[in-house]
Amino acid sequence: MICFAKLPLKVSITDMQHEVSSITESWYPHLNTFDYQGNWEVLSLRSPGGASSTIIPDIINGSVFMDTPLMATCPSIKKITENLLCPIMAVRLLNLKSGAKIKPHKDNELAFEKGEARIHIPVFTNDGVEFYVEDNLVRMNEGECWYINANLKHSVVNNGKRDRIHLVIDCVVNDGLIELFEKADKTSRNEDYNVAEKILIIEALRLQQTPVATNLATELEYELNAFLKKSITASNKI
Fold first, then answer.
1. Do residues 94 and 166 touch, judged by C-beta distance below 8 A?
2. Is pLDDT above 80 for 194?
């Protein structure tokens, strides 16, 4: 299981900073008020239905993800979403104001292994920002591209004097994203092994009928068979 990873994606950070600084639309307070203290604000560049005021990143009432009017004012961000070569869901700017903190929490099922990947690109940050994934402090610099396993406990505090603004992109895992992650600098750990879930993932990969998906399914089958063989051997010794 990937906990977090630095992805090899080129970003025009100067252009992005200029575009974000030029936005005049009012930011919206993040809705999950229980999960943070201080000020945490959101702007949507892609949302269910395509409205800038829709800041929830999940599908509502059958809506489809569409670019909001703000995306047209941020061509460098639009280019990043195109370079990811995967289906893009929500795209948001998240501003954690100076002195604010996001409490430890999990975003259920939001992980690469579950078929969705949340990518963070710091647009503006400072040395006082501390982003923890479980007990790991992840230092993300401006213009870097990071995957965070949001299904794990994570938290953020901005102890700096400047606001911290991240571009956050929610992606559907496909062959293009799998290939990008293969080149990434990853930090991983073993996860609790769920046999039924692994079988469903293998079946879903086989249905894609692409070389990358087929190879990944084969690797997972080898891993599954090794786990089952080990489990049988251990039970026979009891």
1. yes
2. no
